[in-house]
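Q: Entry one of two.
A:
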Amino acid sequence: MKFTVEYLPRLQTTTVYADIPINNLNVELNGTKLALNGEDIDVIQGITKPVISKVPVSSSLTCVKIQPEKIEVLRNADDLSVDRYQWNIGDFKGNYSLYCKSCNNCVMSSKNVSKIMPMPSSLWYEMVDYWHCHKPHEDGPVKYMKRFNQLVPRERGVIVGSYFFIINPGDWNLLAVDEELFCQCGEVLGDKDFTFGNYKLLKWKLSLSNHKYDDYNMVYCRFFEEIKYTAGRIFTLTIRERKVCIWCFGFDIDVNINGTIMRKALKILFKDTAEVQGEELDLEYELPYVAFLKHIEMVNASLLEHLQTYKEWKVSYIPQ
């Protein structure tokens, strides 16, 4: 049996699609487990006083809806105030170590960190002219301008961004050569930002104790930041000469596709395009976008055929 579960938090509703004819489908709900003809599937979110309905989609496909008897409040599912990226400041409590993913050399250990703090936003550099209502004028005292316009970690300090860490290379087991940051094994782990001269240690080049960083999470963060600060939801990416249009839907959608669960996912529609639609995003690093494209194609292919497309768009999800 193939199935897709989608929980919409704003509507507090779970929709389940299964490739079973409606006349042959028996449904029984027990908490977060929905039995379809005796086979349990995880619907992720429990619903108080659930009302279950069945609707035929085709002769071989059935839609099962689970919703509360009464929806008290439609909440705003797109909460843009929370950290949306992997390895945020909350993951750096207690003991932790960062390792080079290539050679497993310890790059940084919590016992040697003087202070770790979050960055205001991954778009901080772009938004620096707007995020403070009392920014010093350009003809103001140099010491105040320097203090305002720079975000520099203290000695053995670390600033956590959405897809990178800002560090001083000399504080750690790293070698800065020109504009690149190297591990002792020779692997490039980061680079220098040309705007303010900070060195960025890239998360997808590292491993954090036992925590995995998904390469494509940088792209999720990029969409989130763009939506948060520009309110745009349609973007065009050019990846290895392929131009792809991305249409972002809601955040925080829980999905179960044939047993693979993605929590707090971003639902997206995508299609190839000859022209730029919406905002064209610059690709600072190619690898995360290649991984992103591979991921959304894989997820799309795993969906039930009826759910793979919406008009001319392909449907996919990317987890937080």
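Q: Entry two of two.
A:
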Amino acid sequence: MKEKKVVFKRYVQNQPTLLLPSLDELVPERHPVRVVNEVLERIDIGALERSYNGGGASSYHPRMLLKVLVYAYLKNIYSSRKIEQALCENVHFMWLAGGAKPDHNTISDFRSKRLKEHLKKVFNHVVVRGPCHKAADDRILQRSPNLIRHRQKIKQLLESDEGLEKRRQRWKVEAVFGNIKQNKGFRRFMLRGLEKVTTEIGLIAIAHNLQRFSLNPAI
């Protein structure tokens, strides 16, 4: 029996190309990095921009640094040195930063110093919420579109035999914190001090919300 010839696909590392692909072509349409870019591009960061002093050398744009930090937290990258490395090696980070390559000191200073007074406003812009509804006593409530359905499902689970058994064992599952600690590997803060820790938990919360939105745009 004649032996079949093995055929390999052509492999040439240094082959020149007439038209190089743009970074935008390498990022899929519904990729989470596009969600981060789209959401953070629309929010008002005027107060953050005004916190910079004039004069001296030019600064990296705070919107770019904010996008990079949020996307890094979404991708479970928390070290400023690893973020710096990703900006040089990862296509998605390179696209998001527009080719800018701030070093780890710039990233760390922005996270620990610049953001601490402005992240709360940023967070309020990207919290996943449903439409506002006014209560009888004029209180404003935030209501998720799926809230009633989820509550009914939870009630059924709690009243089931398995649910009653788990309640007797006093098991309590915190889904968000479980996701952040287990799936995202966020088990310790990179910063120290109450204000800086508050900034970092804000970043991880924003990343959590945007990751949910990228997986389910209907939220």
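A: Comment on entry two: The mean pLDDT is 80. The radius of gyration is 23 Å.
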